[in-house]
Amino acid sequence: MVILWLVTRGQDLEGILREFRNADYLWILLAALAAILSHALRALRWNQLIASMGYPVSPFKTFQAVMAGYLSNLAVPRLGEVTRCLVLQRAGRPPLNALLGTVVAERLFDMLTLGMLVVLTIAFQYGFLRDFLEQYVVTPLMAQPQQTYLVLALAALGALILLIALFVYLKHRWREAHDGSIGHRIKRQLAGLRDGVAAIRRIRSKPLFVFYSLAIWASYFLTVYLVFFALEATSHLTVGAGIILLAMGSLGIVVPVPGGIGTYHFLAMITLTELYAIAPEPAISYAYISHATQILVIVLAGSVAWLAVSLRQHGNGTASPGTTT
To answer: What is the DSSP letter of 137?
Structure first.
């Protein structure tokens, strides 16, 4: 919230409200539908990983778990990754550690995709982005004293050495662990986590997994691009502008801030003002509308998902002992 206040302070609030009043909400509704589609596709892709481990779960239950997880992320960053696994574990009974492994595999694949998107965007639009990158990336990095980089390098090296030492120590202890010991239980949990991560290699249709991944990012793009047409000041922007804003906005969402609040707005605003000469008021209005559309979808769909999960668990709890669910 502090970042959001810093982004908004000094802006013409009346001008921002005027942009909200004059917005074409049909395009915003279409962007909301694209956001829902992206979540549904993510649920279908996750279902592939879960099914590859031999735990078929209803896609509808997977979608509920995904939306419940997104809702949790608004309260505590990254809490949603655990939340959706807990919700689905209670619904379909796959092991929690294996579910967490599939989420890790998903996130690694998404980070790889985002990295490729950013690299390709810079590669194909470097001439256009050069001054922007120099001002907001290269110059701030070069302005840092050399001691800062030395400290960071030493800290990274020290962390790496500690991780290697911890791994060697735990590996030695696990070899000697007997059944029922804490070491044995940790080893078993990590084995399940490893199996979940490896599920990406066992999925039946890898082309379908890739299709879902591309479709997810295409839906993300539509949530960004369609909102352009809701505001007169941004309605002329091109597909290329949408791709650049998608890459920049995604970096804002990745930052461990609840819902990307503030970081997304800042990156969207400077992208529109610095790269496309959009006035500050419509630029910040676009950031607010685009982000609020995604948050509203999460709040509504996530709340419905939590309600459905709660009712199902209540029904299971009140079922007769011989009843299966």
So the answer is: I
- C-beta atoms surrounding 50 within 10 Å: 21
31 Cβ partners below 8 Å, 6+ apart? 222, 223, 224, 226, 227, 230, 290, 293
What secondary structure letter does DSSP report for 178?
Answer: P
Rg (CA), the chain: 23
* Contact between residue 235 and residue 289 where contact means Cβ atoms under 8 Å apart: no
Q: Which residue, 54, 77, 52, 80, is CA-closest to 66?
A: 80
Rounded to 5 degrees, φ, ψ at 205 are: -125, 95
Structure letter (DSSP) for residue 11: S
How far is C-alpha 172 from the geometric centre of its chain's CA atoms?
A: 36
Single-letter residue type at 241: A
Phi, psi of 8 (to 5 degrees): -85, -30
Tokens of 69: 């997880």
Task: Specify the pTM.
Answer: 0.78
Instruction: State both tokens at 237.
Output: 């922007």
At 110-142, the pLDDT tens digits run 888 888 888 888 887 777 777 776 776 667 666
Q: How far apart are alpha carbons 315 and 300 in whole angstroms?
A: 23
Q: What is the DSSP letter of 319?
A: S
| Model pLDDT, residue 310 | 84
What crossing angle do the helices spanning 206-228 and 25-52 adopt, rounded to 10°? 160
**C-beta neighbour count of 67 within 10 angstroms:** 30
